[in-house]
Fold each of these.
Amino acid sequence: MLKEERHKIILKEINLHNKVLSTDLKDQLVVSEDTIRRDLIELADQGLILKVHGGAMSKTFHYPFNGQNEVYALEAKRVIADKTIELFKNDMLILMEGGTTIMEIAKRIPDDLEATFFTVSPHTALALAEHDNINVISIGGKLLKNSNIHTGASVINELNNIKIDLCVIGTNGISIKEGLTDSDWEVVHVIKAMMNNAKKVAVVSIAEKFNSVQKIKICDLSAIDYIITELDPKNAALSEYSGNEKPLLL
Amino acid sequence: MLKEERHKIILKEINLHNKVLSTDLKDQLVVSEDTIRRDLIELADQGLILKVHGGAMSKTFHYPFNGQNEVYALEAKRVIADKTIELFKNDMLILMEGGTTIMEIAKRIPDDLEATFFTVSPHTALALAEHDNINVISIGGKLLKNSNIHTGASVINELNNIKIDLCVIGTNGISIKEGLTDSDWEVVHVIKAMMNNAKKVAVVSIAEKFNSVQKIKICDLSAIDYIITELDPKNAALSEYSGNEKPLLL
DNA sequence: TAAAAGTATGTAAATTCATGCAAAATCCCT
DNA sequence: AGGGATTTTGCATGAATTTACATACTTTTA
């Protein structure tokens, strides 16, 4: 077996599985582990793979995560943001939750939109405040550590006093069977109150989060008016999410 | 399973859900909890995640305002912050305004202080939320562009319902003759409401701002309990500011 | 305040790694 | 085809890494 031949096989294996173990390779290629190790060193020196303890990994698999403060799946979230923004019309009262997808929406709102936004998230509020023609109203309350959104009875009370046209919420878990789920009890109650007081509810979520379930249930899918993902609504992965007329996939 | 592979999975999980529990991860990845913990320590050392008791969470979600924004006269503001913090005691209800000096105070609060902070500023709220033992309550309302503080009738109403031990406000103008002044009508009314509902009022200001006057009057100096600057209270530049027993220079 | 959950630390076993060296394979030139 | 140079490979050694477990300690929860 030629060295170059092994290299090709190794590369192929990594492209296929994103990783290889030295032990597997030595069995598969019937050479000593040292040889494999030397192969991996060479490929790594050429910058083709990422050598790690016990084997090697795909570089493409590795790098997207490195960008420190980069938002995960930013491109997908931008697509979602632009789809969501199409729902926004002048003079609407819109209620937004927190999270990185919602932040992306807040940032990308066109400057000529004239609407009023309510939010329970200080981050979202500050992002919204960048736009000249929109009104930002914070629903104040106890600031929940970590998730950084206002929660508690005062928030629920405030929410009950306003009638919102469109409510946009992110999601931690979404599945056919369990519907919308989250892991924080306080957050769940805020989201429920948000949904209760809105004419329309839009849930934004990158496709990756689909079919994941968290511990606490928020609502069934039927309580949602729009589900917005970065995928085409006709995508097979989403087919089960919109059997009836509701929710509508965008 | 390669270590790096686990790291990728953990990062992905965090990016997806903003947080992970060690217990969940050890089940998902089928390794001991020690291994997970070591993984989290490594990722945290690399600055990729934020380790918390019981698991880890997303850093991007937590520290939105990283670096970049330089603060004018930072050293002076730190001195002011440390002086101000001496007024804070456990179990106090403290009300804070917004502004860079106030932000510096919020950041430098010792982690063992157990108190409740109210604020009308989303920035201040987020900075306060970094400390474990303090309660943060946002007084919500219309978010005023540029100054980024909540204003309007709802804020005044809320403020009138709480009795604060200490109110800390920044300043735009302070002078012997005109007292405390500001340039924004809405902000002035919020500050007045803050002062009305506090037992003690502290004004923080870098020395540079002394003897400056803005268009709208907030109050006379006699309505202030403490004036806190970066200078020694005995400094000649301040001598006229504390003729009587009030305000007290710190 | 006690129980439960989570954390830090050290240890030992297993695995993986780096290095030097010699045998084997390959290449290259005549 | 042959011989020397070069490259590649396998092996031995000790070092380093990784992991699970045990233990003691700290934080959180009820």
Amino acid sequence: MYNVLLLYHNGWQSPVYNIFVYLHVFEYLRSYINRYSAAPLTDQEFEILSSAFQPRSLRKKQYFLQEGEVCKYMGFIVKGAVRQYSVDDKGVEHIVNLSIENWWVGDRESWVMLTPSVYNIDAWEDTDLLVITRADFLGLLDSVPAMHGIIKSLDEKHAIATQKRLTASISFSAEKRYADLASRYPELLQRFPQHLIASYLGITKETLSRVRQRSVKK
Amino acid sequence: MYNVLLLYHNGWQSPVYNIFVYLHVFEYLRSYINRYSAAPLTDQEFEILSSAFQPRSLRKKQYFLQEGEVCKYMGFIVKGAVRQYSVDDKGVEHIVNLSIENWWVGDRESWVMLTPSVYNIDAWEDTDLLVITRADFLGLLDSVPAMHGIIKSLDEKHAIATQKRLTASISFSAEKRYADLASRYPELLQRFPQHLIASYLGITKETLSRVRQRSVKK
DNA sequence: AAAAAACGTTGACAAATGTCAACGGAAAAG
DNA sequence: CTTTTCCGTTGACATTTGTCAACGTTTTTT
């Protein structure tokens, strides 16, 4: 069930994982998907869904996507932490996204348009993903109609979140943006070092350090 | 054809418009939709589509959506210019979007989630729109399956554009962001005054004025 | 036509943020 | 265990951007 055999043959063979963990991982995906679905997926639908994904592990610092490549996979983080960033003319990295368990990673633009990506995506911690290719993704949409609604719901949530972040970036001070991030995604602050959080907020690590100091005093 | 009678009865009776203009407007929407569609819509599909939209005119400064309301309509701008903004605790307006012909307006979050909007949307110029309610929109998706792909394509483009703007906002200086806007959407600079452009970029009108002066000297 | 409002610019100054350099502690590598 | 790298903080100073006020011009309203 749940394509355990297939998984095994696909070679996700990190010694940490055994067959029971595979089951757990796909149950994780299942509960996640059902959360965004009008009606729960049937066992059969879920069978199809799970066979479309492949497990993949990334060592810390290993690339999921490198600038110039076309983004061929979307990944769902089962365990770990991943960052997405661009590098400017001066070699400075600008963090575009920080992602942990339960989040999707990949460059939407490159994935949809099949153009080379301007971003890098790499693992900040050792990370386990479930990945899907564009072809399998489109096949999945065909064979499991309920996926359309699920994907749409995910896309809507993503669009809303991006819009909110953009609004905050334009309207709020660094201090307020940090407070907002801290209240909304406190876990990110614990999983990533401050210089990455700073870059994510669009400020330097020194400024973030001072902002935090001020907010402690209050 | 194209529901001209319906339009008339819906009361879009600005003296400027006559029956030929209605036709033109829907042809406009048709060519726009076809641009994002795999296969052109049939006449019949387009008949259904056009009956789902209602024409609506806004006078300059008239609200399309006010903070606290649920966004019940999405609007396609046929002619005119519209701004979307939030107002902070100090009463300062922060421009979230500036839109002209061929663009959609509405607050996605409120529209999808049926929650009160935190934004205001009003007409900067006298504006003609084609609007659709959520119910009609969902009905349209049901009765014209090709719309799913079209909407998805539009959503994807929107998501990519928002992501780009966010990346720019975090990574680039005010000067670079202005140059980017000027090269990408030169028309916006001519349709909206500088203090709105400045707010859209997340800077003050004085800073924008100085940025422009510097860029002329170069 | 006159008055009012909106708009863009400029100057002086204040505040926020960036840059560079240095330091010490923590974590990772050997 | 030792060495190296990474990380967060701090200080001094530079740069960018914001704030406030004033001014002239254009546009809108009356």
